[in-house]
Design a protein that fits this description.
heterodimer; A: 0% helix; B: mainly beta; 59% strand
Chain lengths: 114, 112
C-alpha cells in the first residue's frame, strides 16, 4: 500500500498561473481533506470531502477549488496563484465511520508563488 | 466554527524533565481530540488521542487529559528525550476526525 500520495512535492509558480496539486489514496478512505501549513499558524483546513461527489469548504477555501469524482483522488486546484498561497500543502484522509478519526497525511507539497 | 488555541508556542526543557502543552476549544459539539507530532520536514503523525467520554488516557511516557466543562485538554510528556524534539499539534473534531481543526502548534526543544 502506498497510503496517501501527493504530487508534485515541489512547485514554483508565477503570480496568476494555475496548477493542480494531486492527492491519491489506496486505503479506501471515505474522507479526504486538504490543509495548508504556514509558520506559526498550524494546519488550516482548506476543503474536505466525505465521499465521491461531495465536497465542502473548510477554514480557508478562498482561491482554491476541489472536486471528488472517485474515492481515490482529491485534487486541489489553484486557478490564479497569488504569493499569499505560498505554503506547504498536505492531503489527509480518514476512514470515518470505520475508523478512529486518525488522519493519515501525505508527504506534503511545497508551493512557492513568485 | 471550531477554534483551537494552543500554548505555549515554544517550549524548551532539559532531558528527563516533563513537558506540558495546553489547548482550548470552542465548539462543545467536538468529541474527538487528537495530538500529532511533526518532525522537521516530515508529515504530522498521530501520537495519542482522547474522546469526550474519557477524562484521561496514557500511553507509556505520554498522557492526555480532557476537561469537557472547561473545554481544555492537555498533553503531558514525562522523562523527555532528545528525540521528543518536534512540533506538536492539538486538534479537535466532531464525528471522529471529520473536519479536524488544529491548534497553531508547539515547538518542543529537549536539551541533552
Amino acid at each position: 500500500n502506498a497510503g496517501v500520495t501527493q504530487t508534485p512535492k515541489f512547485q514554483v509558480l508565477k503570480t496568476g498561473q494555475s496548477m493542480t496539486l494531486q492527492c491519491a489514496q489506496d486505503m479506501n478512505h471515505e474522507y479526504m481533506s486538504w490543509y495548508r501549513q504556514d509558520p506559526g499558524m498550524g494546519l488550516r483546513l482548506i476543503h474536505y470531502s466525505v465521499g465521491a461527489g461531495i465536497t465542502d469548504q473548510g477554514e480557508v477555501p478562498n482561491g482554491y477549488n476541489v472536486s471528488r469524482s472517485t474515492t481515490e483522488d482529491f485534487p486541489l486546484r489553484l486557478l490564479s496563484a497569488a504569493p499569499s498561497q505560498t505554503s506547504v500543502y498536505f492531503c489527509a484522509t480518514t476512514p470515518t465511520e470505520r475508523g478512529t478519526g486518525e488522519l493519515f497525511f501525505g508527504e506534503g507539497s511545497r508551493l512557492t508563488v513568485l | 466554527g471550531e477554534n483551537v488555541e494552543q500554548h505555549p508556542s515554544t517550549l524548551s526543557v532539559q532531558e528527563g524533565d516533563s513537558a506540558v502543552i495546553k489547548c482550548t476549544y470552542s465548539d462543545s459539539a467536538s468529541n474527538y481530540f487528537p495530538w500529532y507530532k511533526q518532525e522537521l520536514g516530515k508529515r504530522p503523525q498521530l501520537i495519542i488521542d482522547i474522546r469526550s467520554n474519557v477524562g484521561e488516557k496514557k500511553d507509556q511516557r505520554i498522557a492526555v487529559t480532557l476537561n469537557k466543562t472547561a473545554k481544555h485538554f492537555s498533553l503531558h510528556i514525562t522523562e523527555t528525550q532528545p528525540e521528543d524534539s518536534a512540533v506538536y499539534f492539538c486538534a479537535a473534531s466532531e464525528d471522529g476526525g471529520f473536519k479536524t481543526i488544529f491548534g497553531a502548534g508547539t515547538r518542543l526543544f529537549v536539551k541533552a
